Inverse folding.
């Protein structure tokens, strides 16, 4: 996430040289193209951590650092 980034609430996921922009509410791929397996893993992780992602989005909008979120096991 980036400080004062544009709406809608989203985060950026990077895999190799590919970047995805992923909406948080609703959870969906907004931009980018990664292998389907990667997209599935990112969407699964986002669904597990949606409340934390929304809280971190709010933190970034208020110029506060986001809190760490556990990776997908």
């Amino acid at each position: 996430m980036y400080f004062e980034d544009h709406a809608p609430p989203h985060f950026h996921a990077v895999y190799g040289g590919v970047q995805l922009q992923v909406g948080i509410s609703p959870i969906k791929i907004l931009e980018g193209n990664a292998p389907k397996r990667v997209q599935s893993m990112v969407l699964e992780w986002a669904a597990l951590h949606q409340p934390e992602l929304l809280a971190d989005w709010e933190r970034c909008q208020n110029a506060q650092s986001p809190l760490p979120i556990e990776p997908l096991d």
In short: Helices lie at 36-48, 50-61. The radius of gyration is 12 Å. The longest strand covers residues 18-24.
